[in-house]
Amino acid sequence: MSGTAGAQAIGLLILPVLARVFVPEAFGVFQLYLSLLIFCSVGIALRIELTLVSRHDDEVHHTLASLFGLVLVVALFVTAALSLYSAFGASLGFPAALLGLGLIGNGCIQIASYKLIRDQSFSRLAKLKVGQVLIYALVALAMAALNPTLWGIIVADVIGRLTAGAYGLFAVQPTKAERTAPLVRLRGLPSFVRQNWELAIISLPGALANSGGAMLTPFMIFHVFGAAAAGQYGLVDRAMGVPVAMIVVAGSQVFLGRVTEQIRAGNRAAVLNIFVKIVVAGAVICGVGVLVARALIPFAFDIAFGPGWGPAIEIARIMIFGYAVALVMGIVNQTLIALRAFRLQSAWDFGWPVCIGLAWILVVTQGLDLYTAISLHAAAVSLLGLIFILLCIAKLRGASTPEAAEA
């Protein structure tokens, strides 16, 4: 967690500098790149990297080598697909090769992270996270000083991810015993995927759907309202969404640890009690925070990022409601998984992009403006968060009845 916090802090500290040098269009192109990167990274290793933490010791080296090979193949496939999309469809605003390189770096980082978690080598994991953002920050600042081009922030991000990916490869070098395992050939990858078909076929679609809902809004803003509008939205997402995500990660890990302990003991009533307390406390804190933030946002953005970010101020004042609900809901977002309600969780994963997609269909067909589109997005996020909380309460109450306990 210190590595995650340190990495996020570095990114936030350089944001005011970059906002004063790079034009909003550069942030818009970077936001589109980042959204596509995060979406594609969910499936860069077909979710099979999740098995690293539970593999037998004699299988780890072969699994690692297979996963790294899979990352290269999937990254090349995605790059080719996006190149065709750019040639015959709408422009991405940046070369597809940059996304492919970023995917390779990100895939190596993900695989190495799970191996380091397995080994409980948390100091190396922290170095991996901090190193990635530190290299990105240094390159971005250098480009800001020398030549702040439209793709400058993307290039810095790609270099940071590739450097961290290379460190990840070094950090998970096999022991002498593991080096005796046979080398992995590309023709063996289909067999490797078939052996782990459950994750590739069952887990991956839901994860992609959930991630697709998150990337749909920045993608549509770029293509409907242009790169400058996407840049205004991207600055808000980096300045406010990233800290919210960091709190959610830390809070959800603590919450999951507490509730799974009660679930193992068969005390579902205690789980419901913990859940309700966190939701109520979070709602009160975030409610007060929204009122304070809406008053301070114009002053804070003007001081931090300088002139030229007026639309970002209005976007932030709208998005603050969505971020507040996302923070409350995000902390308890592991509830259905902890309860092993996988079907309900899958329905939720697929419902998320459907609702966001319907909102954007309304925006496009009715010709709505940017701020109305952002308002619809924030309203959809808030409504979906409320529905998720109600689903969890209903599931917990059903599991807490005497009949359910006997079953």
Give the structure's gist in a few sentences.
With 407 residues, the protein is mostly helical. The protein is built from 15 helices and no strands.
Which helices and strands appear, and what pairs or packs with what?
Layout: H1 2-21, H2 24-42, H3 57-88, H4 96-118, H5 122-146, H6 152-171, H7 189-195, H8 197-225, H9 227-264, H10 268-305, H11 310-331, H12 335-338, H13 342-366, H14 370-400, H15 402-406
Helix pairs in contact: 1-5, 1-9, 2-4, 2-8, 2-9, 3-4, 4-5, 4-6, 5-6, 8-9, 8-13, 9-10, 9-11, 10-11, 10-14, 11-14, 13-14
Describe this structure in words.
By secondary structure, the protein is mainly α. The protein has two domains: 2-195, no CATH class; 228-406, no CATH class. The chain has helices at 2-21, 24-42, 57-88, 96-118, 122-146, 152-171, 189-195, 197-225, 227-264, 268-305, 310-331, 335-338, 342-366, 370-400, 402-406. α4 (96-118) runs antiparallel to α5 (122-146), α8 (197-225) packs antiparallel against α9 (227-264) and α9 (227-264) packs antiparallel against α10. The radius of gyration is 22 Å and the shape is globular. 39% of the residues are buried. Mean pLDDT is 88; it is low at 401-407.
Overview features:
disordered C terminus; 407 residues; 2 domains; 15 helices; mainly alpha
